[in-house]
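re: the backbone from monday

yeah here it is again, tokenized this time
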């Protein structure tokens, strides 16, 4: 499925609904936080590994295809691997976002930037520019593995990583979750309890008997 159709599907759901649809989804450490005005991301990962040196991030921004998400394995170091100029450069290149397991700076610009930017730290101190970095390799970002081309999705709740081949199915499953949630919200707004839309009693009874069960929405 084309990336544009996946983006359209993602607009109707969120990362929480996707995680509800599949508990095995990779979720980045919540310490990787949004720094920009825009938080929603959907795009393929362009990976880069750096250690105390940000030249690899510059190379990634210049080499990534439009729509890609720069995913930086900075080793969790409290050093800035990018700032305002890299954000502006990424916008020129038509990239979908930047995620850094390390620091970001120039927050005065970044906080209103239309490019979604996430980082573990905000710090004024940048690294060096003496090493090329490693591009298009499996990396660790936010405590999880990210392979080149993995699909990155992010919003106000956090950042998740999907196998591209599973994305279409998971987005459809997330849409079903949102539909069920909306029906429960309607019941709550009408003054009904949570039990009117969830199998609370039956689930509790089954668990009490040691029987397999799951909490689910009622039709």
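seq for it, each position gets an aa:
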């Amino acid at each position: 499925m084309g990336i544009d159709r996946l983006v359209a599907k993602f607009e109707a759901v969120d990362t929480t609904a996707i995680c509800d649809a599949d508990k095995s989804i990779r979720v980045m450490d919540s310490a990787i936080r949004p720094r920009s005005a825009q938080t929603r991301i959907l795009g393929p990962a362009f990976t880069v590994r750096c250690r105390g040196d940000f030249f690899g991030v510059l190379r990634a921004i210049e080499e990534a295809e439009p729509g890609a998400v720069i995913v930086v394995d900075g080793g969790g170091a409290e050093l800035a691997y990018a700032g305002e100029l890299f954000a502006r450069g990424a916008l020129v290149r038509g990239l979908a976002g930047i995620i850094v397991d390390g620091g970001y700076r120039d927050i005065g610009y970044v906080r209103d930037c239309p490019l979604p930017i996430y980082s573990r730290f905000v710090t004024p101190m940048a690294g060096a520019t003496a090493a090329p970095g490693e591009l298009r390799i499996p990396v660790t970002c936010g405590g999880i593995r990210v392979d080149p081309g993995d699909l990155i999705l992010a919003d106000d709740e956090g950042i998740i990583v999907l196998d591209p081949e599973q994305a279409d199915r998971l987005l459809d499953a997330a849409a079903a979750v949102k539909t069920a949630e909306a029906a429960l919200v309607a019941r709550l707004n009408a003054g009904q309890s949570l039990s009117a839309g969830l199998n609370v009693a039956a689930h509790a009874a089954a668990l009490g008997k040691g029987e397999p069960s799951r909490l689910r929405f009622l039709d």
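The chain has two domains: 3-164, 169-209. Residues 169-209 form one domain.
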